[in-house]
Specification:
This protein folds into 2 domains: about 45 residues, no CATH class; about 120 residues, no CATH class. With about 190 residues, it is mainly alpha-helical. The protein is built from 10 helices and no strands.
Amino acid sequence: MKTIKRYLPIIIIGLAFIALAIWDPEKADASLTVSRDYLKEMILIIPPVFLLMGLLEVWIPKDKIRSWLGAGSGVKGALISVLLGTLPTGPLYIAFPMAASLLGKGAKVSNMILFLGAWAALKIPQLVVEMKFLGPEFTAVRFTLTLIVLVIIGQIMERAFTGRHEVLWEQPGESVGQKTKQMGTKR
C-alpha cells in the first residue's frame, strides 16, 4: 500500500494517458511527443545545473551568501537577487533548486522571491523581445510594476516564513516532526 501511495501521481498520469490513447489516439501521440521532448530537455539541462550547484556549494562560503543575500544585505541583496534572476535564459524549474540551495546557505526569503520572480518575468532576453514588439514605454512600465509587486510579495513572504524555510529532508522511517525536533527548531 505504501508503494502505491508513493507512486500514485505516476499511476494516475499513466491511467489518464491510457484513457486518452483509447478515446483520442491522435492527442495521445501528441501528448507522448511533448512528454518525450520535455524529458529530453530535462535530461540535458538538469545534470549541468546540479553540477553548477555543487560547485557553488564548494566555491562560495556560507558567510559570503549571508552577507550578499542574507538578513543584513538590505537593498544590495535585493539588487543582487534581481540581477541574478535577470541574467539566465533557462527554464524556471532550474531556478527552484538554486533558490533552495541559497536559502540553505542563509539567503533571505524575500531575496529568493525576487530572484525567482526576476527569473520568471524580468529576464533580459525576454525584455529585449518585449521592447521590440510592444515598445520601450510598455516594457519600462511592466518592468517597474512587476518589480514593485515582487518586492511587496517578497516582504509578505519574508514575514510569513522567516525561520521556517529550512530544508528538512525526510529519511526513511523518520517524520519531518522528528527531524525538526532534532534540529532544535519550532514549527
